Amino acid sequence: MTELEQEQEQQPQQAQNELVEFVEEEPVAPKRTDGLRVSDFLTGNILTRESIARQFPFMMFLVLLAVMYIGNHYRYDRLMRREQTLRQEVKNLRAESVTTAATLMQISRQSEVVKLVNQKNLGLEESTTPPKVIK
Asked: pLDDT tens, 67-107?
């Protein structure tokens, strides 16, 4: 036998002399103490953490800003609707003003005044002499 073969025969004998005990352990999942879980949000436990409690005033400030932003948006929408209504009303009043001015111009012409006086039989006649200036 060669030396190599003798060494290979001795190794299993040495391994048999040493007793190795294998113990099967169930793997334990590490507990996460610093992470956030969905169940913490659902149960409300997230609010009891110290890091969240320290940030509570800042969170309330953000909530206040959000409420003010939403209120400002609604106010802006209401003002825009009011402005649009007023613009439409001004447009309608301007059209009515132009119509009324045109009607007044037509009625106040001398020829129209003479026609109206004759229709109503007021007994007035148009003057044929020009007016005199009083000094």
From this structure: 999 999 999 999 999 999 999 999 999 999 999 999 999 98
Dig out the tokens for 2 from the structure: 């060669």
85-101 b/e with 16+ CB inside 10 Å = b?
A: eeeeeeeeeeeeeeeee
Angle at 96 between CA 90 and CA 97, to 5 degrees: 85
Residues 91 and 99: beta-carbon distance below 8 Å: no
Amino acid at 45: N
Rounded CA separation 125/108 (Å) = 17
DSSP assignment string, 11-49 = HHHHHHHS-------PPPPPP-SSS--HHHHHHTGGGGS
User: Whole-model pTM?
Assistant: 0.47
